[in-house]
Design goal:
Shape: globular
CATH superfamily of the largest domain: Glycogen Phosphorylase B
Largest sheet: 6 strands, parallel
CATH architecture of the largest domain: 3-Layer(aba) Sandwich
CATH class of the largest domain: Alpha Beta
CATH topology of the largest domain: Rossmann fold
Structural class: alpha/beta
Strand order of the largest sheet: 9-8-7-10-11-12
Strand content: 5-15%
């Protein structure tokens, strides 16, 4: 909860849902976040003022510690559930859902499996486990049990839902009927739309991490092609990978005078996004990414910013192609694109309005909250 994603994708929902429901929020928090005493105390008070009972579990970072995190977390969940006579669990992602699944077996507790992605396939996609190995096969059997025992399931993308129902994630996926879709939502009151002016040089923005699931090399190669015909500035809002980004800029012969790299706090992001004309990023199109929805996408659309990105990641292609909110780029054709024409077609008021409309239709936090309430009523009665 001390990190931007927790603030955006957990607390934003709970602060609104807590008007109607009483929550015991159990979260793993990293040791470095425990050291931020003043910030931690402020957050504790904010959460408490919303009537939420926050139970913090210290995340252990050693190799052995990581192994025991699950057992310690499950122990505290069990203790909290029994002590407070809790009957329903909303579990976000796989590890908490394994705890909820065990509690269902012991205490017959109903749980909502808020899956986020395909966690076990993510491990296989990055090569940390083999799809042919016993570990992966065992995890896939567990995954199937997590789905089948859930009273309700939420996916971040319609493509992810279709992947389950099409038996691509595991056999008999078509038997699961209680899947809903609530993407990563955005607070439209924070990320506001204002009429945009389109001046030159064009400001191309890159938001968030440059490693992991994000293919920053493709971003650099695309920027290199763009630079041949477009007068631009490259504005990067990134946490702590500045040296890595500078090395990539040097490697791809990007003019460093045109590049600005900053660390921007979450609370300042809505204002700073107004400096960007168009966003550019690539996500590795692994199988597991069918279930994804980049948090930044809703925030960019809410701010009226069109997006250049790749296909085969969640519903990104649907939002961009159907509503004309940017351009899906095929990387093997990157040298064939006329970027002057692309920018002329997307850098205008109508595209900005389209972006905001998509944010209001699909990514609204208020709509997400109402959809969660609907799910609660359906599965918890």
């Amino acid at each position: 909860m001390m990190e931007p994603l927790g603030a955006s994708q957990v607390l934003s929902y709970l602060f609104k849902l807590s008007d109607e429901y009483e929550y015991y929020l159990i979260s793993l928090e990293k040791p470095n976040d425990y050291k931020k005493n003043e910030e931690l105390e402020r957050l504790k008070k904010t959460i408490q003022d919303k009537g939420i009972h926050w139970v913090l579990v210290k995340y252990k970072t050693s190799r052995i510690g990581k192994f025991f995190n699950f057992f310690n977390f499950t122990r505290i969940v069990y203790k909290t559930v029994v002590k407070n006579k809790i009957k329903y669990i909303h579990s976000r992602s796989y590890l908490p859902t394994i705890s909820a699944f065990l509690l269902k077996k012991v205490k017959n507790i109903k749980y909502l499996f808020d899956t986020r992605g395909f966690a076990f396939d993510e491990r296989a996609d990055v090569g940390s486990i083999s799809r042919k190995g016993l570990v992966f096969k065992t995890l896939k059997k567990l995954e199937k049990s997590l789905y089948k025992n859930a009273s309700g399931i939420n996916k971040l993308s319609f493509l992810g839902k279709e992947t389950v129902l099409g038996n691509e994630l595991f056999n008999e996926g078509d038997e699961i009927k209680n899947i809903e879709v609530i993407p990563t939502c955005v607070d439209l009151d924070r990320f506001q739309y204002s009429k945009r002016s389109f001046n030159k040089p064009i400001t191309i923005g890159y938001i968030g991490t440059a490693v992991g699931w994000y293919d920053f090399d493709k971003t650099m190669e695309t920027l290199s092609v763009i630079s041949k015909t477009i007068d631009y500035k490259f504005l990067v809002f990134n946490g702590n990978q500045h040296e890595f980004i500078r090395e990539k800029i040097k490697e791809y012969n990007i003019d460093k005078k045109k590049v600005t790299i900053e660390k921007v706090p979450f609370k300042e992001m809505p204002t700073r996004l107004k400096e960007i004309d168009v966003a550019l990023f690539y996500i590795y199109p692994y199988f597991s990414k069918k279930a994804s929805a980049a948090t930044k996408l809703g925030e960019l659309f809410a701010s009226g910013i069109p997006v250049l990105t790749n296909k085969d990641v969640g519903d990104h292609e649907f939002y961009i192609n159907n509503y004309k909110t940017g351009k899906i780029l095929e990387f093997n054709k990157i040298n064939d694109y006329n970027f002057s024409e692309i920018f002329d077609s997307i850098l205008n008021e109508q595209t900005a309005i389209n972006c905001r409309m998509v944010a209001e239709k699909y990514f609204s936090l208020d709509k997400g909250v109402e959809n969660y309430k609907k799910l609660y009523r359906e599965i918890f009665n």
